[in-house]
Write a structure and sequence with these properties.
Elements: E1 3-10, H1 14-27, E2 32-36, H2 41-47, H3 53-60, E3 64-69, H4 85-96, E4 100-105, H5 119-122, E5 127-132, E6 142-144, E7 149-151, H6 157-170, E8 174-179, H7 185-201, E9 206-211, H8 212-221, E10 228-231, H9 233-244, E11 254-258, E12 268-272, H10 289-303, H11 306-321, H12 335-343
Parallel strand pairs: 1-2, 1-3, 3-12, 5-10, 8-9, 8-10
Antiparallel strand pairs: 4-5, 4-11, 6-7, 11-12
Helix pairs in contact: 1-10, 1-12, 6-7, 8-9, 10-11, 11-12
Amino acid sequence: MSKRIVTLPGDGIGPEIMPAAIEALNAVGADFEYDEHLFGGASIDAYGTALTDETIDACKGADAVLLAAVGGPKWDTTDPSKPRPEQGLLGLRKALGLFANLRPVRPLPALYDASPLRREVIEGTDLLVVRELTGGIYFGEKTRTADSASDNCLYTRAEIERIARVAFAAAKSRVTSVDKANVLETSRLWREVVSELHAAEFPNIELEHVLVDNAAMQLVASPSRFDVIVTENMFGDILSDEAAMLTGSIGMLPSASLGGGGRDPSPGMFEPVHGSAPDIAGTGAANPLAMLLSAALMLRHGFALETEAAAIESAVDGALADGLRTRDLGGTAGTAEATRAVLQRL
């Protein structure tokens, strides 16, 4: 029986890059059924909400969720009573119990010179950022008056343990746990729990604790020293975008969001790190490579189809090695040309 994928093209360039991923999945022989739903700003325009109950139910019943991009200036607002596309993302992560966001960062030799950092700084970098996704300040209680506002940052021992376990399991040699334990009480609990889990279950993996400001500095100064970085929601949001730029373009990076919500196993959600790029939407200039690599992550983490995942990744590597460059990488190739260059290698 074929597996069912809910596709969420979303906003901006999303509807332009989603077809590339489906073509690549078909090219490696993956037998999937696709169920497309409006999401984010597109859903706000149609239904007045970024995430409908129907879309939640479809995602819960799917085997995986493939998301392209959400957001855009059209829906930007500081009015807390008005819907925002990002609310759809937060709501879906919560509904599916997606507590672990995995962002691999591996600059390709063909793109070393596209990075803002010198080749010798990024050479050999192969790291994974594991970000806690459903707790912390983004989900804490919020208050707002005309003159003041507050956001509560809350973490429980169980939340910290489960994300740390994902990080240790993914590590080859070392886990770098990032916090702000010199200032924040939540970070002191974080450090304590990660240390206890390390001693009890993963003593063969090296563990280091790094303050978030120091981690941000080291990501630029010496990124190849990292193996797996694990951190809380807001720090992970910031550091993973910083790490993304090591590759030369945020348009190159995929991500996976995994968990164990009301469904066992819970469907994972797979999406590019980049945004909806409304400034180039409709021009055919979008870089589809992160979307293609997100499809590869889905094959690997969602369906244990390692051979098919590696085929897509190798095809992307090969196209870049042969000189493919989209505009964000300093070239002229558009969405169609980049997709074609990868598909030819499949």
